[in-house]
């Protein structure tokens, strides 16, 4: 578990708070992120600075009226891979979760520059990144020309997406399941490539003996958070797994 101090980014930022970044990386400040070197481009590959991507996303959020409550940043693989979380406030009054935008970038050609929207469940500090809002832009020569437009379009979809997410959570809380149905869904998760066979005992154990009182009810909401609780050590893989 990595905890980074939240840094204000504009006058619209709310008071600082702690945002947890679960990852196999080391937490860095915004200043340290700015110092991460960007490798030189080639004729077909144009890497961009980690901080540059973060700034493009911040501008799009603020321009469209979103409030940035805080952020956390992590680097790994000799600072070649970056994953950041931006907490966006003002969209839900549910005390159990809030909304985040995930930002990721790589300087080793491992993955594209991109963002994904999701939620952070506060009772167990796990993350869930759903696939409706995802953006990935390869590091080709025109990336800096295209990225602001693509990010702005993706951010524009967030309000509707988060309204749908609130409705989905309500339905998940209402959908009661028994152990047999939960076991079936865990096996189906393996069949669809969400997780490897080795995760089955961990997920089932946590489902049968919840660590948090909020997840004692036998519902789809509890089962989803069982998955994300087990997966939270690899935040870079959460978008695909969710």
State the share of residues found in helices, binned by percent: 25-40%
Could you tell me the number of beta strands? 8
* Mean pLDDT reading: 83
Q: What is the global morphology? A: globular
| Poorly predicted segments | 1-18
Q: Helix count?
A: 8
Radius of gyration: 18 Å
What structural category do the secondary elements indicate?
Answer: alpha+beta
Number of domains: 2
First-to-last CA distance: 19 Å
β-strand amount: 25-35%
How does this model look, in words?
The chain is an alpha+beta fold and 242 residues long. It folds into two domains: 2-170, no CATH class; 175-241. Helices cover 37% and strands 25% of the residues. The protein has eight helices and eight strands. The chain has helices at 30-35, 50-63, 143-156, 158-174, 179-191, 200-208, 220-231, 238-241; strands spanning 2-5, 18-21, 26-28, 67-76, 81-89, 97-106, 113-121, 126-137. The strands form two sheets. A six-stranded antiparallel sheet has the order 3-4-5-6-7-8. Strands 1-2 form a two-stranded antiparallel sheet. A hairpin with a 4-residue loop joins strand 7 and strand 8 (126-137). Helix 2 (50-63) runs parallel beside helix 3 (143-156), helix 5 runs antiparallel to helix 6 (200-208) and helix 6 packs across helix 7 (220-231). The longest helix has 17 residues, at 158-174. Residues 1-18 have low confidence and may be disordered.
How is the secondary structure organized here?
Elements: E1 2-5, E2 18-21, E3 26-28, H1 30-35, H2 50-63, E4 67-76, E5 81-89, E6 97-106, E7 113-121, E8 126-137, H3 143-156, H4 158-174, H5 179-191, H6 200-208, H7 220-231, H8 238-241
Antiparallel strand pairs: 1-2, 3-4, 4-5, 5-6, 6-7, 7-8
Helix pairs in contact: 2-3, 5-6, 6-7
